[in-house]
User: Fold N-acetyltransferase domain-containing protein from Pseudobacter ginsenosidimutans.
Amino acid sequence: METQQTFQVLIADESHLSFAQIICDEMASSAKARGTGIAKRSPEYIQLKMREGKAVIAFNQDGVWAGFCYIETWGHGEYVANSGLIVSPNFRKGGLAKMIKRKIFDLSRQKYPEAKIFGLTTGLAVMKINSELGYEPVTYSELTQDEAFWAGCKSCVNYEILMSKERKNCMCTAMLFDPKDHYQPQETKEFFEEKKSVLERLLRFKQWKFLQPFLNKDSKDKDGKPANKSKKLFQQIFNF
Assistant:
């Protein structure tokens, strides 16, 4: 594995169309290696995102492709998803994923300043990066209900689980950044760091019921909401 790499993260355009196939291949290979689901995308779809200026692409100092991510919109721009995050195996664990997520997040905020930005992930590393950007774990009910979005899950190996749960839960964790109502990034980062060992077990097994003894659901503020912010976030992510 290469270390001490310098990367350039750019807004993708037509000059990068030739990388679409390798991006799709790496997405599929990575999902297979992890044994997790992924909504498949075609090279033509990736190229469309590049042409629209709704994707970011990364290269190392030698011009070798290193990573990618793109923007999708739902509900007439009310919701935005930063999808398809992928880093080449040669450049992982060097901070590049965080760089790409920051770039695509900033691009999303620029293009859709009023939109809620959300994501679904089975990975603790992505959850950590999202938390540092200000994302909060939420229930699936807070995501877009656009049928086109959920149709994209049909190619995921966990689609039957999703449908058996009536789209209320699945193997993925839902996270959301709401520009009108959100915690500060420092708060969500601290929450993640405090609870990451628990989250790792829950992501692996989805046995959230074992957390119930540790949450005092009777602890409410004057508005009837959970008084403790960490408890509130746990209640959101595990559908309490």
Q: What stands out?
A: Strands lie at 7-11, 55-60, 65-74, 79-87, 116-121, 136-138, 173-177. The longest helix spans residues 185-205.
